[in-house]
Amino acid sequence: MKIVYVTNTIHRGGAEEYLIRLCENLIIKNSIYVIIPHIDGTNGIISELKEIGIECIDLKLYNQNIFSKFKAIFNRSLSKAHSIENNDSQSVKDKLLVKIKYLFDYISSFIIEKEIKKINPDIVHFNLHDVKRQYPSISKISKKFKCIVTLHLVPPNFSLLNEKEQKKDLLKSIQNKTKYFAVSNTNAKLFSNAIEFKIDYIYNGIKINNLINFKKEDRDIFIKKYKIPQDNTIFATVGRIDYTQKDYITIIKAMSKLKETSNNITLVIVGDGGHMDRLKKDIKKYKLENNIVLTGYIRDVNLIYKSIDCLIFSTKYEGFPLVLLEAMSYHSNIIASDIDTTKELIKDQYNGLLFKAGKYEDLLRVLKNNLIILKSKQFKDEINDTLINFSEEKMINRIINEYKK
After folding, report:
1. Whose CB among 7, 122, 279, 289 lies 3.0–4.6 Å from 127's, allowing a Cys bridge?
2. Is 333:260 a contact under the CB 8 Å cutoff?
3. According to the model, what pLDDT value does residue 34 have?
4. DSSP string covering 175-187, please?
5. How confident is the model at residue 18 (pLDDT cuts 50, 70, 90)?
6. Which domains does the chain have, with CATH numbers?
7. 160 to each of 60, 84, 100, how far by Cα in Å?
8. 132-166 burial string, b = 16+ CB within 10 Å, else e?
């Protein structure tokens, strides 16, 4: 089978991890191509894709004269784009931005279509983090090729009221029998309500067929590397440094208060992103310089998960929290905000602990009440039962079945 993936982001995250896992599993028996409309200043996951034998095609759309003039506009963060496009009461400037972005997608659709025709694939699978991009391409390409679309993040206020062109293209693609899938039940419902057409979901999955071998030496290496006191309780949070979606200030405030009664704590923040300077200012403001470690982006987080006592996951909304599955595969304790997508995976007091999203006082309560037992793998058996339902094998089999239909 010849498969083309079209992805609108290459920065490492859940959507990109999903793409890598698909490619790793399917490259053995299939020819796979990844089309990237544009790469701007970062290699992202391209090197990883090439390592497993995937042909990556950069269309270099920013090098086209018609696009380069608008480069600054398209480089706005995804979170900013979401906040603009999903707000029913937009300013004239914001409405113009949405129109220009659509124009970019419309013109680029001809270039993407031309490249896909050269390959002549059996399947074209769009891997979308931004759920309002690429619809002109999907509409055009679905006339001639079988198309599947994976939606990785549908914001809570998702709407197409102000994007008539996008909705028109989307409905055309559905008429052409394009199959849309979200990565969680919550996101499938949000998207279905917005377009008035029911779509299904396929959960992200991870490898669970090998038991993690924990060694005391791993933790010793970790605490030595980051200069963490031996007896400290080690928390971690993993993800993009983005205050709009990933709610770092809630964790910072809770840690600041927890330090007043329990100073032998360390929070390891793994990731990079556009709000790093803001994060550093908050760490200084709340006097946590001696309690927080910033690692930056780490490709292999195995040592992190093996060494920490608890993962804290504070987010305002999420497509599907893949990082929770990764941490659970190492039997890490989980404390997570109680958003709907998180609750599809974590049941409070069963396989993890939940706190009220955005409420640092409630996160502090959970931390204080469970500080001692977080040093043990208290939910190990329950986590094993949970992981069975979120295996990579299940995810791949469902996607292959869709390809073959």
Report:
1. 7
2. no
3. 95
4. HTT-EEEESSHHH
5. very high
6. 2-202 (3.40.50.2000), 216-389 (3.40.50.2000)
7. 28, 12, 16
8. bbbbbbbbbbbeebbbbbbbbbbbeebbbebbebb
